Amino acid sequence: MAKILDGKEVAAALKDELVAEVDRLRKQGITPGLCLVMAGSRPDSQSYINSAVKRCSSIGIDCRVKKLPEDVTQGDFLKIIDDLNTDPKINGIMVMRPLPQYISENTIKYKISPEKDVDCLNPINVSKVISGDDDGFAPCTPAAVIEILDYYGIKVEGKRTVVIGRSMVVGRPLAMMLLARNATVTICHTRTRNLAEETKKGEILIAAAGKAKMVTKDMVSNGAVVIDVGINFDESGKMCGDVDFDSVCPIASSITPVPGGVGAVTSTVLAKHVIEALKLQKGIY
Ligand code: NAD
Fold first, then answer.
1. Does a structural domain hold residue 99?
2. CATH number at residue 214
3. 282 within a domain of the structure (yes/no)
4. What is the interface pTM, i.e. ipTM, of the complex?
5. Is the CB of 85 under 6 A from ligand 1?
6. Which of 199, 214, 231, 268 to mutate to test the pocket of ligand 1 (most atoms within 8 A of CB)?
7. CA–CA dist 226, 209 (Å, integer)
8. Which atom of ligand 1 is nearest to the CA of 170?
């Protein structure tokens, strides 16, 4: 049976470090600040915000939520981002996606200050992820995957690592981050032929497709490390990942559960990025 890679344990260890860091900053009279911006009323965005605010507040970060109507104009949206860019109390800005139809993500992403862009929307941060520079911000979810691998001492160097999914939020940046750590990376997507043939090559297999239980045991090689990024709901409405946990667990060497895996680490990584952003902005090393 696979060892369970416990996201809650990873998040708790990271939280302890961050609380100590925030205490040190507080003694210098500085408190990190985060603003989450949400336009419209998508329940998934709202539930992300609730858990991010809860987590970041518990670490000592001042959290603000800016809720905008679904029909907010592009001009008003840009003005809000401008104000946050220059607000000295705000060190990190996170814009919930998908944006409503009247707002162009392509415009917003250039507007958000790269130094406050804690979830890697701005192409400057994207390019830093691609080039392996460590002074930018990667998106929180792939960064959470890396936190889990590091916490459990799972080395990726030289390993055949297969990522299912090529979105800008998860699959693509994650592949680049693994490449920067010298993994041999294959990216699979909806047009990949013989998916199982590709995924079986993975010593490390990471699923970020958003398809409930699509990774079955015939797609996983014996002893593989399996990381499940997916957040889905099965026929009975129960949360599940992209991996069919019950069938894959007996053949994998280690595996993240859903819930309690990658998703449990993401908001703590957001807090980490806000603290890093503050230090970057204030020149604290
Ligand atoms: P997305 O829909 O933007 O991208 C999915 C990707 O998977 C696409 O690149 C697509 O080509 C690929 N894909 C889809 N079906 C496939 C199939 N049958 N075979 C091969 N490839 C396939 O989704 P996303 O935003 O990248 O999110 C992926 C999953 O991760 C979702 O379940 C989402 O809820 C979850 N997620 C989790 C967290 C977290 O904190 N754990 C954060 C963000 C997203």
1. yes
2. 3.40.50.720
3. no
4. 0.98
5. no
6. 231
7. 14
8. 26
CA nearest 84: which of 107, 63, 61?
63
As a whole number of angstroms, the distance between CA 186 and CA 167 comes to: 14
CA dist list (Å): 41 to 78, 95, 210: 19, 13, 21
Which two structure tokens, joined as six digits, stand for 65? 């939520």
CA of 164 to the centre of ligand 1 (A): 8
Q: What is the pLDDT of residues 146-203, one digit of tens each?
A: 999 999 999 999 999 999 999 999 999 999 999 999 999 999 999 999 999 999 999 9
Phi (first) and psi of residue 137, to 5 degrees? -125, 125
**Does residue 182 sit within a domain?**
yes
Give residue 284's identity as a one-letter amino acid code.
Answer: I
Q: DSSP for 6-62, please give it.
A: -HHHHHHHHHHHHHHHHHHHHHTT---EEEEEEES--HHHHHHHHHHHHHHHHHT-E
In single-letter form, the type of residue at position 237 comes to G
For residue 140, the CA-to-ligand 1 centroid distance in Å is 14
What pTM was computed for the model?
A: 0.97
